[in-house]
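Usage example:
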Amino acid sequence: MISLATTFFWIFLIAFFITAVYSVKDISFNIGDPQMSVKTDNELVFSLPVSITNRGFYNIGAFSIKTQVLDKEGFILTQASTLIPVIRKNNEVIINHNMTANVTELLQRCQNYLFNDTELSIYAALGLRIAEMIPVEASANFSMLWGAPLYNFSLGEIQYSVHNSTHVRVVVPISFENHSFFDIVGSIHMQMYNNTDVLIGEGEARIEAWSNMPYDGFIELFVQIIGVTETGRFEVYFLTSIFEYGPLVIPYG
Amino acid sequence: MADVNNNSRKKIRSTVFRALKATVKSVLVYLIYYIIWMFLAPISEYVPSLQQMIENFVIIYISLMIIGDLTSGTIFQYFVSVSKSLFVIAYLILSLKGGIFGITFQNVNLTVDLRLFLTIAILLSLLGLSKSLLQTINFLNEKAEPMHV
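Running the assembly step on the lines above writes:
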């Protein structure tokens, strides 16, 4: 009797294991093109459409996708996870794996991301339970180049011209390269201080810098003649749909 | 003289029968392995050591089965049976690396948690082991000479 029961259980166990493993080849994943959108609170949302087709013999349990973006020091910049409790057999499920990144917060942590290209590492893990019983996890590490949105930001030669008896028109050329994957649409606000820390003028310019394109423009300021000194500083503020940053202090003279 | 002839004939017949039984069982086990391998073959592309691992198991298991059948009716049959159960337990634990099976394919690390499967398989093997031990005790009891008072 024991022999019979043992044999029966062995056959059941092996048959279950073989069919469960065999089912794996009938599971297919398709990862679509990543989409990017900006939320009202200046957060970037990366959306990765994933479709899972289960043509195996059993349901898939606890299907999960986990992603983490880390900097060089291993600090987690952003992370996200998506879970589907059950994918029934002969079913197709389409999900969006959303990863949110607050660029303003990121820049507060390190302004390097704004002006210098750097390398980020991405950890991605995909987990599932074959036949809702056997846990399987596949994980991988990738590296990704972070393109700085204001790469090589610099001010050109300042041009002065008399506007009226009390003010001078100051034109400050600005240039940078937008190495990031998003377009920069917003404005640059600039304040001019003389060498006694007195605000002598300010101006604003609208910018539209497309992704992976250089940008050249200028800001016009009207400055009081009596306040102008040979040396001083500019304080630059960036207000865009994706990030806000400032002041960036650049001395002149 | 006739009794001696009969005994040797019986022995030969019994040996031939056991050899035949062992052969049939071995062929059956090999056929089962062959059918199972057809299902597992696609996975061997990703786990190159899988075929070697299963082949080694089948070879040793069939060998123990043949020895067990040939020694049928003796105490050695039970020794072999116990060894077979212990071999299954040890081989499963060693080859499945304690139940957490991991491979690296290019940049991707794949981890399969077979602890539940391994636990059930070990429990079934332990059941087989205990059955073999009980049969050994029973065999020794039957062989023991009755005590005359």
